[in-house]
Design goal:
Strand content: 15-25%
Protein name: EGF-like domain-containing protein
Helix content: 10-25%
Organism: Rotaria sordida
Number of strands: 26
Keywords: Membrane, Transmembrane, Transmembrane helix
Bound molecules: 2-acetamido-2-deoxy-beta-D-glucopyranose
Distance between the termini: 156 Å
Radius of gyration: 58 Å
Order of helices and strands: HHEEEEEEEEEEEEEEEEEEEEEEEEEE
Length: 377
């Protein structure tokens, strides 16, 4: 929105600036200074700064790094000035007496640098033997000698679960039936022991093809195969054997005690029982499960070995109650079904009944009530 008036004013000011510049140049010349282009001073300043920096770096470099020989560092067995630093210490060389040799004690020059021999490592400026079984290790600088492994505790050892130490090496533990002299030689993970110089299972375990596992206990399914994947042997150390119905059973004079997990001798008269098989059946004992079934001289409880009904205990075993004229010490010994009573040491018919060949009967027309004869009807 400039008017013609504004334009006029601007033109006037421009003319004035040119005029002022001319005056300045005139004054400078008059004071005897030379005229330089405007761009020259910044360039000069930059060049000056670069020069100073360069000089500073160069000085710093020469101050911090003492000047070395321009010649290359010397290699093994080259002659050198004693303790001059002429030998290449990056190769482990130094100059103790006129020739470059290896600095680390016991190290040797392999053609390009000084190294410790195999099975040694650097410690205290010397090559020392790598640690043996039981000594401390710390990979990757200090490895164990032989085939020992460095345990997490930093000790050279063998793998405790799969190996044993034979005084010089870690040996993989032996498999089943391998010959051995100590149990630690046999595979622990397979639960093998050294028995009679063979890696084997302890007597109540069997080899199932991959490890030793417990033999079968009472009532468990079994077979007569003793070793291998199909084997299911009964624990013979507990006297169990595989009965024909493929269950482990005790010998017939014993029963399997579920609480003690072993075979026990079958029980005798008056002993506590849980089932008939607890009781000695050759002596005719049973295990009554209801009270009051006892037919014996003394009252006995349920769940104790006792006689079956109409039998009695004679002091050794259960026998059948006696028939007519049998000897007795009490009516308990006489057949109660016929029925007989003990009188004067003999089993006789209770009066007024009489023996009729197989039982005691009342006279005709009468019947036995259990204590006497009464007329029928
Ligand atoms: C070192 O050099 C000398 C002289 O050159 C030589 O006699 C000597 O056998 C060399 N020694 C080794 C270890 O190379
Ligand atoms: C010498 O040892 C160094 C370091 O272990 C190795 O890098 C180099 O290859 C070895 N040189 C020869 C010639 O064996
Ligand atoms: C040192 O060990 C390396 C690798 O196990 C083997 O190649 C070399 O022959 C061994 N050197 C000596 C001197 O036993
Ligand atoms: C021992 O050996 C077994 C089987 O090779 C491996 O699984 C286990 O990690 C080893 N243990 C150690 C401590 O090296
Ligand atoms: C240990 O085993 C290694 C390798 O089988 C064998 O050379 C060495 O004689 C054995 N050492 C002993 C003490 O049995
Ligand atoms: C165990 O090894 C012996 C001898 O090598 C062999 O006679 C026997 O049959 C083996 N026993 C088993 C169960 O493999
Ligand atoms: C296996 O190792 C464990 C732990 O060290 C030990 O208790 C066990 O008796 C070993 N078993 C055998 C068969 O050596
Ligand atoms: C196992 O062997 C015994 C003795 O020879 C035999 O009496 C039994 O019946 C056998 N058991 C089976 C399940 O074959
Ligand atoms: C196997 O035989 C025993 C002993 O006679 C018996 O008590 C058991 O009930 C039988 N088991 C089976 C499953 O037949
Ligand atoms: C029962 O006991 C007698 C006497 O103790 C013994 O001789 C017999 O073998 C036993 N029988 C059974 C099956 O336990
Ligand atoms: C029982 O004994 C008596 C006397 O000895 C005898 O007379 C009687 O016939 C016998 N009874 C029977 C059933 O044997
Ligand atoms: C005794 O035997 C007769 C037949 O011989 C029979 O009729 C009677 O019921 C029997 N009495 C008893 C108590 O068993």
């Amino acid at each position: 929105m400039s008017t013609s008036r504004d334009v006029d004013i601007i033109q006037v000011s421009v003319e004035n600036e040119e005029l002022l510049a001319q005056v300045k140049r005139t004054e400078t010349v008059a004071k005897g200074k030379c005229i330089v282009p405007k761009w020259l001073p910044p360039i000069l300043i930059i060049v000056l700064i670069l020069t100073i920096l360069g000089a500073a770096f160069a000085m710093g470099y020469f101050i911090s790094y003492p000047r070395k020989s321009i010649k290359p560092l010397k290699l093994y067995n080259e002659s050198c000035t004693v303790l001059s630093g002429e030998c290449d210490d990056s190769r482990g060389l130094y100059c103790p007496s006129g020739r470059c040799i290896c600095e680390t004690v016991n190290s040797y020059y392999n053609g390009s640098s000084c190294i410790c021999p195999n099975l040694t490592h650097v410690a205290n400026q010397a090559c020392v033997a790598d640690p043996f079984y039981g000594q401390t290790c710390s990979p990757p600088t200090i490895y164990c000698i032989s085939n020992f492994i460095c345990s997490t505790a930093g000790v050279c050892t063998c793998n405790a679960t799969t190996q044993f130490f034979n005084e010089s090496y870690c040996i993989t533990q032996y498999v089943y039936n391998a010959s051995c002299t100590e149990t630690r030689h046999c595979s622990n993970t397979s639960n093998l022991y050294c028995l009679s110089n063979r890696c084997a299972c302890v007597s109540n375990y069997y080899w199932n093809g991959s490890s030793c596992v417990p033999k079968k206990l009472g009532w468990q399914t079994c077979n007569n195969v003793t070793t291998g994947a199909s084997a299911l042997p009964c624990d013979d150390t507990l006297s169990l054997y595989c009965y024909s119905n493929s269950t482990c059973q005790c010998p017939n004079t014993m029963y399997w005690d579920i609480n003690y997990q072993q075979c026990e001798t079958k029980r005798l008269y008056g002993d506590i029982c849980n089932a008939d098989f607890y009781c000695n059946e050759t002596l005719n004992f049973i295990c009554p499960t209801l009270p009051g079934t006892c037919n014996c001289p003394a009252w006995s409880n349920d769940y104790t070995c006792d006689c079956q009904p109409n039998w009695f205990y004679d002091g050794l075993q259960c026998i059948q109650r006696k028939s007519i004229n049998g000897t007795c010490l009490g009516t308990y010994a006489c057949d109660r079904n016929t029925p007989l009573v003990c009188f004067s040491g003999l089993c006789l018919c209770p009066t007024p009944t009489t023996w009729t060949g197989s039982n005691c009967t009342c006279s005709s027309g009468q019947t036995w009530t259990g204590s006497t004869c009464v007329v029928v009807g």
